[in-house]
Amino acid sequence: MAATTLTACSQLAVATPRPTTITIAGATAMHPVLRALTAAFNQQHPSTLFVIRGGGSTLGEQQVASGQVDLAASTLWPAQESPGNGSSPRPASRLTRIPIGLDGIAVVVHPSNRVEGLTMTQLQEIYSGRILDWQEVGGTPGDILLVSREDGSGTRRAFEERVMGDEPVSLTAVVMPTSQDVVEFVAKTPQAIGYVSLAYVPAPGEPGSGTPEAVETPTPATLRPLRVLPIDGVWPTPTSLRDQSYPLLQPLYLVSRGEPRGNVRQFVDFVLSPAGQEIVGRFHLPVR
Question: CA 53 → CA 29, 187, 274, distances in Å?
């Protein structure tokens, strides 16, 4: 009996869960919160590994629809199902969208810029190229350098629909592939203006934050000082996101092909749990 017990214990000791990998692609606006969520999930489930890719919301949804990845990170509103720029429609009927939070698109400038805020009209005129000098809007005199995102970015799509309408963004805009690239460029370019997820802006009390109310988002270690501008007199804060008084909002979705299953379902359930939503709340407005 002793020998049998020892043998059974030995077998139990070496029996470990088979490692699995969940691949997530899409919005770089969601990378900070995804890194925090996957790290916390991995602590509870060490055999589950994660690969997080960028590429933008549109590419992420295309890849999850074709089975290339397990989940897409997307900031596209459900109404944005029609094709754009000559692309084919996204196969939305096969996709399951799981809302995990609400994000604000922060308009950012260099810390040395004296501009105190912008209206939506001024922001449109700046990005269309009709306002060319910061002095016209109360900023530090000098040419305005526009920074935008690449085609396929959900943040760019939301910005253009809410700010630009039928007006095209000026062809002089510098196009950046990721949210972090926007942050890095604006932080080192005094005349630049850009837009980026709230997860990438400086936390209150740090150089350049400029926000009177706590944004309640942590600053990644690589984040550079920026100034966040109020739009129409409203700052991007949890309160203004909750009551939707801030005009530049975008949803945060995890998107799966059909209903998520297995360890992907476990991860989604964790994200929507109190522990997961507490993590989301460090970066964005949680849904629960």
Answer: 12, 24, 26
